[in-house]
């Protein structure tokens, strides 16, 4: 059976499973659409939350970023995992005890203000739409390669699948679909990693193989360090960038994770507060299975690619154009070239494709001596690495088909969660909460589905022209959530001092200052010379746009405290409400009342 047919079988079977589950678990009420009727078991919710949280950035992009940068990009691992722990310990149980459907509804009630609720809706929409761009980007990449179509058509097909099971299933359908998607994505991620770890180190556990030795007896990481430095790149295991930026980036990812509404909403689906704590623990277990494997996937893929391009070392001949055209070992390069995400050019006409860091001073003399004319691997989109990994390692065709299904499962599961958060904000917080409070349940359910369909259209349009790699786009979304939503939730739960005016001022200040910094660095003002500051030449020293969320959060906190101190004190009934949310006694009763 040819590879295209295998891909169709795996992808088609997984899509049939998702849509079938959505039909079976179709939401029939607003409670089921927003919170799955609050009847999800903690283990089931833990698996669904893991799928919701591990997006295309985790499955498709993160290992690629680690592979091409090394130690510095371990910030993604530390930030996202640490942020989930922060969410599980400091926010999830208290928000579940409060008993509302959405994050915006909690902020509106806690800060006794419709304005606070509306500002929260704005912050939620900005962060969620930015995040969903990365997911749709991942869908387009995966479809484009494995169905051998243009990435744009892949994005359009993926959006139709999300529409089919998310719009009609709501949170209830999405929850059980995400359980299936977790099973698919974790299987698809770990099986190739096990194969490749066995090939390179003889160890079937990738996380242990990463610190093991190759067949020659040389430690894998030491061998990788030697190869990449020979090619003129920075040492893989060494820190290369700014420590300050790395700390701020990690912090931004952490608090952004804790402030993302689509993950928080998952904790509203369990029966009681204790179940929220248990589901948080189970989620961490399910997440760890992928996150302990990702560093090994990145390192081993980088080693394989480097050795394929220079099969006998940089002092000998590079891979030839003829080999790429005829050797099955290099067939993956031509198939990925068709997607537009990989390309090469024989610039000096010697029949070889030299791959090296042409900006490295030590290699420039060697390049001149050998007649090399720049790096001839002219394009290698980092988002393709995990999806191409089984082909690079010459694994069986069924593994390649499985990875195709896994990559799509990761992107679609998070996209569905984000679209549900957007839909809930529009229908429940904006329409039902503010504009048409007398709306019937049937009308609200219809509005939720229409708003989700509209959100899918917006996500597709923006996903056609993303602002970076999938993980970089997602990092911007985390920064926006960190600067706007997280501080409001923390102050809402743990401080009675913050009043409605302070909360609104803080959210707006954090969001605006972060957006300005991002737009300035991305050159999105459409005014000449506004892109004079870039991530290679930041406005604030080494602080990149993806790291600024932590600064935005500090601005939010500071603004909220200063404004609250200058305005009217929080009413006593709100102070009592805040205290009751934090008191464990009667938690089960309080949850049951909701």
| Share of residues in strands | under 5%
Distance between the termini: 55 Å
Helix run count: 26
In this structure, how is the largest beta sheet organized?
Answer: 2 strands, antiparallel
Report the helical percentage. Answer: over 70%
Number of domains: 2
Here the CATH topology of the largest domain equals: Sodium/glucose cotransporter
Mind telling me which CATH architecture of the largest domain this is? Up-down Bundle
Structural class: mainly alpha
CATH domain class of the largest domain: Mainly Alpha
Description:
The protein is mainly alpha-helical and 594 residues long. The chain has 2 domains: 3-300 and 392-593, Sodium/glucose cotransporter (Up-down Bundle), CATH 1.20.1730.10; 301-391, no CATH class. The protein contains 26 helices and 2 strands. The chain has helices at 3-24, 30-35, 42-53, 56-69, 75-90, 92-98, 103-110, 114-146, 151-201, 206-209, 220-230, 243-259, 261-264, 273-291, 294-309, 321-326, 331-337, 361-370, 385-392, 397-435, 441-463, 470-494, 500-522, 549-566, 572-582, 587-593; strands at residues 342-343, 379-380. The N and C termini lie far apart (55 Å). 55% of the residues are buried. Residues 526-532 and 585-594 have low confidence and may be disordered.
Question: Can you give keywords for this protein?
Answer:
mainly alpha, Sodium/glucose cotransporter, 2 domains, 2 strands, 70% helix, globular, disordered C terminus
């Amino acid at each position: 059976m040819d590879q295209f047919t295998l891909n169709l079988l795996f992808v088609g079977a997984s899509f049939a499973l998702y849509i079938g589950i959505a039909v079976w678990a179709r939401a029939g009420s607003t409670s089921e659409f927003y919170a799955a009727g609050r009847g999800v078991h903690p283990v089931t919710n833990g698996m669904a939350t893991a799928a919701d949280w591990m997006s295309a950035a985790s499955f498709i992009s993160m290992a690629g970023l680690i592979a091409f940068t090394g130690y510095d990009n371990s910030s993604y691992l530390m930030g996202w995992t640490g942020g989930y722990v922060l969410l599980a310990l400091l926010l999830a149980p208290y928000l579940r005890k409060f008993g509302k459907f959405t994050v915006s509804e909690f902020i509106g009630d806690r800060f006794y203000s419709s304005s606070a609720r509306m500002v929260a809706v704005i912050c939620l929409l900005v962060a969620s739409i930015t995040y969903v761009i990365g997911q749709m980007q991942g869908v387009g990449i995966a479809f484009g390669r494995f169905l051998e179509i243009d990435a744009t058509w892949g994005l359009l097909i993926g959006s139709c699948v999300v529409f089919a099971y998310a719009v009609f299933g709501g949170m209830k359908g999405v929850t059980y679909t995400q359980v299936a998607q977790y099973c698919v994505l974790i299987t698809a991620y770990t099986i190739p990693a096990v194969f490749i770890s066995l090939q390179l180190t003889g160890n079937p556990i990738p996380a242990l193989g990463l610190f093991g030795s190759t067949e020659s007896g040389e430690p894998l990481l030491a061998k990788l360090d030697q190869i990449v430095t020979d090619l003129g790149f920075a040492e893989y295991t060494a820190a290369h960038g700014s420590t300050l930026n790395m700390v701020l980036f990690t912090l931004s990812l952490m608090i952004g994770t804790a402030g993302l509404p689509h993950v928080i909403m998952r904790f509203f689906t369990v029966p009681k507060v204790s179940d929220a704590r248990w589901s948080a623990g189970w989620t961490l277990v399910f997440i760890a299975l992928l996150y302990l494997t990702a560093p090994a996937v990145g390192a081993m893929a980088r080693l394989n690619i480097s050795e394929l391009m220079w099969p006998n070392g940089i002092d000998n001949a590079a891979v030839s154009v003829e080999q790429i055209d005829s050797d099955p070992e290099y067939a993956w390069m031509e198939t990925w070239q068709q997607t537009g995400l990989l390309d090469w050019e024989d610039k000096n006409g010697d029949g070889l494709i030299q791959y090296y860091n042409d900006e490295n001073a030590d290699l420039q003399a060697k390049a001149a001596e050998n007649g090399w004319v720049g790096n001839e691997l002219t394009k290698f989109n980092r988002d393709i690495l995990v999806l191409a990994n089984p082909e690079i390692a010459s694994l069986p065709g069924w593994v390649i088909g499985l990875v195709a299904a896994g990559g799509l499962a990761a992107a679609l599961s998070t996209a569905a969660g984000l679209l549900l958060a957007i839909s809930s904000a529009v229908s429940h917080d904006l329409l039902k909460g503010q504009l048409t409070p007398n709306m019937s349940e049937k009308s609200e359910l219809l509005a939720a589905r229409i708003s989700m369909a509209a959100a899918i259209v917006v996500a597709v349009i923006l996903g056609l022209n993303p602002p970076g790699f999938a993980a970089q786009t997602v990092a911007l979304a985390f920064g926006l959530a960190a600067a706007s939503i997280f501080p409001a939730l923390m102050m809402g739960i743990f401080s009675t001092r913050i009043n409605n005016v302070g909360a609104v001022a803080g959210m707006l200040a954090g969001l605006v200052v972060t957006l300005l910094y991002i737009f300035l660095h991305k050159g999105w003002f459409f005014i000449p010379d506004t892109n004079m500051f870039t991530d290679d030449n930041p406005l604030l020293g080494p602080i990149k746009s993806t790291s600024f969320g932590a600064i935005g959060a500090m601005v939010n906190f500071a603004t909220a405290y200063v404004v609250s101190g200058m305005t009217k004190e929080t009413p006593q009934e709100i102070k009592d409400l805040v205290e009751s949310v934090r008191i464990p006694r009667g938690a089960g009763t309080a949850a049951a009342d909701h």
